[in-house]
Specification:
Elements: H1 10-30, E1 45-49, E2 53-59, E3 68-73, E4 76-83, E5 102-109, E6 114-124, E7 127-134, H2 149-160
Antiparallel strand pairs: 1-2, 2-7, 3-4, 4-5, 6-7
Length: 161
């Protein structure tokens, strides 16, 4: 009887599972290709932080500014929008429709360190950039350490006593 030791690579196994699920959804969508459907999409979001701000970058090409809505309620930011299907070309003239259309909504919890009064949103080249400033008390503060004069003053008082 032989035994094998199998190394388990979590990330590889997870990637394989994701590929299988993606193929499953692609197969179910390809069976509906005859009636070109405009399904909603979920735009990808990058969120990063520096000393001053928390920044969200949302990929929303083809979405007009008037179709974007950004709200902050109860320490949650919600970005809503809609990418509309172009009606310039008749549906029967399309050979393939791979881009997603329709409404979307993304919501993210915000830490208490964010100042909800100081938020900016810029839209350029299909990227929505939302910048949330941190509160002054949340920003890192460096404390200067004095060496020498403060220590000598304490020592001289101690010797005089």
């Amino acid at each position: 009887m032989s035994s094998f030791i199998t190394r388990w690579d979590t990330f590889r196994d997870l990637a394989q599972l994701q590929d299988r699920v993606n193929r499953l959804f692609q197969d179910s969508n390809s069976s509906r290709e005859e009636g070109f459907q405009t399904t909603s999409f979920v735009p990808p979001v990058d969120i990063y932080e520096n000393e001053q701000n928390i920044v969200l970058k949302v990929e929303v090409p083809g979405v007009e500014q008037k179709d974007l809505d950004i709200r902050i309620e109860n320490n949650t930011i919600t970005i809503r929008g809609e990418r509309k299907f172009e009606q310039e070309t008749k549906e029967e003239n399309f050979h393939r429709v791979e881009r997603r259309y329709g409404s979307f909504q993304r919501s993210f919890g915000l830490p208490n360190t964010v100042s909800t009064e100081n938020v900016t949103a810029d839209y350029e080249n299909g990227i929505l950039k939302v910048t949330l400033a941190k509160r002054a008390e949340a920003k890192p503060k460096q404390i200067k350490v004095n060496v020498g004069s403060a220590g000598k003053t304490l020592e001289s008082k101690g010797q005089a006593a």
